[in-house]
Structures are given as structure tokens and as C-alpha cells.
Design brief:
four-stranded antiparallel sheet, mainly beta, 0% helix
């Protein structure tokens, strides 16, 4: 069992943030909500948690790992069997982005950085390769300017 909770700064209280019993991770969204990545009988799912409620955004099915959510909450990327996929939300069909894994969204949500056998690739959400790197690459942390 792995639950998502918020602990008061002084440790005086613990508030559950999601109903799921096996939470893999969480990512903050630009509008203050949380994308909660968890396991359910159908497989890996992403829900939106805010104000003590949770709403299913997408069911990625079995074998989905290394899930990343765009800060705007409008796209999700994940790895399955060494391939990275992207799905625009709500309701779009998944597309295969690249051979590789560990996807990370660009701060503006318009591209996904994927680890490949050759290094890394920056792939636009339209599926086009924007850049390739001979080593692993990452996005630097940034402040409020990342949200715009």
C-alpha cells in the first residue's frame, strides 16, 4: 500500500489526497491540481486530485511505466516495453513517439525529452524529432516563467 497524503508543516495532521491504494507518483499541475499516477486492476491510471476529490483522467492499461504529465494537464507520456507514447487529453488516441523511455515534458508542454540508446531525443507532441543529443539530457529547473 502506498497512499498520497499531505502532512501539515508541524506534523499535526495528515490528509489523504487520493483514494488509490497503490500510488506510484504525483506531479503538480500549473493550476494547482495534482496528477496522481497509480495502479488499479486495469493497470496504470492518471487521476486529477484537488480539494479532496479525485477524477480519472486516463487509463494507460497494463505495463505503462515512467509516466509524465504536462504541467497544463492536457497531455500524458509514458513508456511501455521500451517505447514512449503520448496521448493528448481528453480522449485522443495514443501515438508512439520514440524508441526509448523515461519521458519528461518540456516546461511549455510542447515537447517530450526521451532517453534513447544513443543519448536523448527531444520530440514535439506532433511526433517530429526536434533535436538529438549524444548523451542524456535534462530540463533545468526554472521559476514561474516555465508556466507561460
Amino acid at each position: 500500500v502506498s497512499r498520497l497524503v499531505r502532512v501539515a508543516g508541524d506534523g499535526s495532521s495528515v490528509a489523504p489526497l487520493a483514494d488509490d491504494r497503490l500510488v506510484y507518483g504525483m506531479q503538480p499541475l500549473a493550476d494547482g491540481g495534482l496528477a496522481v499516477i497509480s495502479h488499479r486492476p486495469s493497470g496504470t491510471v492518471v487521476s486529477r486530485a484537488e480539494s479532496g476529490t479525485s477524477r480519472l483522467l486516463v487509463d494507460l492499461g497494463r505495463d505503462a511505466v515512467h509516466v509524465a504529465m504536462a504541467r497544463a494537464g492536457d497531455a500524458v507520456a509514458w513508456e511501455r516495453h521500451g517505447e514512449t507514447y503520448l496521448r493528448l487529453l481528453p480522449g485522443d488516441r495514443p501515438i508512439r513517439l520514440a524508441t526509448g523511455g523515461h519521458p519528461h515534458f518540456a516546461p511549455d508542454g510542447r515537447a517530450v525529452l526521451v532517453d534513447t540508446a544513443e543519448g536523448s531525443a527531444l520530440i514535439g507532441i506532433d511526433g517530429t524529432t526536434q533535436a538529438s543529443f549524444a548523451s542524456q539530457a535534462a530540463f533545468a529547473q526554472c521559476g514561474e516563467e516555465c508556466g507561460s
